[in-house]
Each structure stands twice: as structure tokens, then as C-alpha cells.
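User: Thanks for the earlier help. One more: N-acetylaspartate synthetase. Can you show the sequence and predicted structure together?

Assistant: Of course, both are below.
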Amino acid sequence: SCFWVAVLDGNVVGIVAARGNEEDNTVELRRMSVDSNYRGKGIAKALGRKVLEFAMLNNYSSVVLGTTAVKMAAHKLYESLGFKHVGVVEHYALPGMTRSLLERMFFQVRYHRYRLQLREE
């Protein structure tokens, strides 16, 4: 597993992590985030490419990710990196959610899954 930090002019402007899974030979792209003041400048794409590079150098067969992002820009970013949308979970419960009546009424989350096949197993 690895963690990368994007630094610009001495400021942390973005982060991303990669967690390897030996059982199915995949890497999970996790926790990608870019400071809102620096979005649209290619930082997220560069961070995503770092994860892909890590996966290829370590002979993983694919990279997967899950996101609750509601902004279409995030989904377009993943697709621009070569990821394919492989499914969605409706009414996803985030860690710490109680699934109370109020949460079910006002806080419905869609969890999207993406996969990028690097090579066949």
C-alpha cells in the first residue's frame, strides 16, 4: 500500500492512497481528495496516474475504486483515467450511519464502483 501527497508552492493540495489486495490481485484507489482551491488544474489526474503506475509496477491486474461523489466531474475524471463504471449501490450506508428514519428520508447515498483492467489474469 502507498500514500501520495501533492504539494504546490509548499502547500499540500491533494492526497491519494492505494491499497493492494493480494487475494484478487487488485489495487484499490482510496481517499483521493484535492483542495477546492486547486481543482481543475490536473492534480487529481496526476494523483490517479500515480496509483495506476504503482499498480503496473507491482504487477496488479486491475485497479478498483468506490465513490459516493455527487459531482459529475469526479466521475468524468475516473473515466478519463480509463476506469469503467461497473455498478451502483443505492441507499448506501456510510460508516457511522444509524439508518434512522431521518437519515433514510434525507440522506440517501449512491455508491458507485469503478474498475480499470490492466491485464488479464
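User: Great, one quick takeaway?

Assistant: The chain has a mean pLDDT of 90.
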